[in-house]
Amino acid sequence: MQLPEIIKKRIKNEGAISFHDFMDMALYYPSLGYYNSPKNKIGNDGDYYTSPVLSSLFGEMIGRQLEEMWFLLGKKPFTIVEYGAGTGALCFDILYYLKNNTLLFKELKYCIIEKGEMMRQRQKNLLAEKVSWYNSINEIGLINGCILSNELLDNFPVHKVIMKEQLMEVFVDYENDFIEVLMPSDEKLKNYFIEQEITLPQNYCTEINLQAINWLKDIAQNLNSGFVITIDYGFPAEDLYSAKRNEGTILCYKGHQINNSPFENIGEQDITAHVNFTALNFWGQKFGLETCGFTSQSNFLRSLGLMNYLRKLEMENKDESNRDSILHINKLLIDMGNKFKVFIQKKGVKSKMLTGMQFANPFP
Length: 364
What we know:
This protein has helices at about 5-15, 20-30, 50-55, 55-70, 90-100, 100-105, 115-125, 185-195, 210-220, 235-240, 275-285, 295-305, 305-315, 320-340; strands at about 15-20, 80-85, 110-115, 130-135, 145-150, 160-165, 165-175, 180-185, 205-210, 225-235, 250-255, 255-260, 270, 275, 290-295, 340-345. By secondary structure, the protein is an alpha/beta fold. The protein has one domain (about 5-345): Rossmann fold. Strands 2, 3, 4, 5, 10, 14, 15 and 16 form an 8-stranded mixed β-sheet that branches. Strands 1, 6, 7, 8 and 9 form a 5-stranded antiparallel β-sheet that branches. Helix 9 packs across helix 11. The longest helix has 20 residues, at about 320-340.
């Protein structure tokens, strides 16, 4: 049975399901959901690019930041936990860079949390040493080091809501086609905005990512001392919930084309929603995480020295491979660099200064 038929059957048996549950099935249903299917998703023949696939320098810059974090933690045994490692390219490039630091590398542990069997197998084909795989952070034990995610939270299933006389949640029903219906939202969704002191105007449509809060809570409980690096696209709340985004931020990616039709190509396209970094800051503090800084990917990479590589390449002979490298670095700095944000939190660490946060913005 195809995934749309499975979703239709569930709706027939249970009645309308929340958009959250629809998105969860579309992306993660066993064998048929987008992230559990064998289809290649990343790169030229996929649906989108990620920074690690564009250039190995992305991983090297993060490796530099991780090396500094290891130093701030007293040069002790260091654990990196990467959520949703994709092709494994970021892990590969980070390890390649850290291998130059013999003392760090000797006592380094790299843990990947990956639920998708197809992606896990792809990672295992690439990564030969230092790496172990887990289904949950709770399997790892107390962590001294850094917990890293790159383009993870935008794929968490979200609750879609719209403000009418009261806050309404969008559910998915089926009548000759998938349709959206509104039902009164529960207290958890209302409290999400109340706690952040956010007031939505009439007819304002947006998303709520409760899973990101639970994810952050798990991290805070399992991080003994160290840092959390979250890289994704999104905004602080004042920008995310501005008038220009009154129709929400859900986007779908297929064949490097963007659309806003989640009920088409079910299981064959990515579905995303922008991240509320204010929520990560707010609940992170509640869970015992302090904020180190929030900045654009561009500023983060510049701070760690990526411009030096760009200048060097521009001064060398410009053969085709050189031109490609320059193009990819510029994409990391300009296109994706302005689109993606880097948010770093810490726990049990005195120093707040990190090289990657030299140009950090004050958090709203």
